[in-house]
């Protein structure tokens, strides 16, 4: 069997196939495994460049961590959080709802209640099958919220949980249906707004450990620096042509890369017309992940958790991201979609200054002088080209969603971008890897 891509999805598929007694080759374009998980040492600091969070409902990931002997630790969350309002004023608070004023807070809770009723109705497995799917897919997330409420602040605050925080696209560019899929995949909208749930724990040593250990078990079956350029497929099997004069023949293939990279492969014969159209309506978002490492987590001395929500500011979220048993303190911050575009236009020095000034407005002048400052820019990464994950434009999910996971002859598909539960998380990648492997095992047994 052939697997294209050595991220969590591809390596989980390969592991399952090997456990079923099949021979597998994994071809990876990069010089490393892990896909959108990547743990690096930058100027002496260990940074998780990509995905890192573990939530209580992520059963496939938790099972994998247990099997691999990997431990987790809780994100630091003691003390008060900070909310930055539209005027840029800083408010310290505890609890789940931002201190946005009694009326706005009540409206936020009301909107969350509506979404918590809609999300399970739509579900994560087949949102396109819902009776109102086309209707929900024809209205943008931004516009739908404003049909439900006249409170602009409440709409913006609720919007951030899906737009900037998850899909990393402007709220006008994707549909209500896509937002409901995001909520349903996380077990409900209430889970998205609860950072203590959705950002619960991290892996000791970094999330990339999952892929590193799976690859270690697969040994020489994993081939790096081998981007697949051409994939011939027919009823009798596939032939992959990769860099380095690598040619792999197999009965079936798992394509375990993000949908925006499918076009990098020359499929022969070409994929069916509807599939080619589908790929033109799905894209990754854009987010800058900011890492600022200090000599200590000094904000804790001031009774702060390190958590900041600033829905009206360029840096919209900040968290204490200090590593396990590390004396140094790390803050991780995020700048998404249109704000990320504007940030990059500033140039490196001005961009750094603007981000650190916003951190200093929340935590004081010590935030201006990190020992390490690093920006994760997945949009510039050759074999990713965006973050966190792929989503459809308005109307695309109801029109094409049902085709995403369907095998095409000997071709099977696996990545977090097409997952149901665990959509756009490592948990979803593992689930899709297992599912694609099971499809092959079942087909070969027929």
From TrEMBL:
Binding residue positions for FAD: 28-29, 228
Residues binding substrate: 334
Pfam family, one: Amino_oxidase
Required co-factors: FAD
Residue span(s) of domain Amine oxidase: 9-441
Cross-referenced Gene3D superfamilies: FAD/NAD(P)-binding domain
A GO term for molecular function: oxidoreductase activity
Keyword terms of this UniProt record: Oxidoreductase
Protein family membership: Belongs to the flavin monoamine oxidase family.
PANTHER family: AMINE OXIDASE, AMINE OXIDASE [FLAVIN-CONTAINING] B
Name by which UniProt lists this protein: Amine oxidase domain-containing protein
Species whose genome carries this gene: Agrococcus pavilionensis RW1
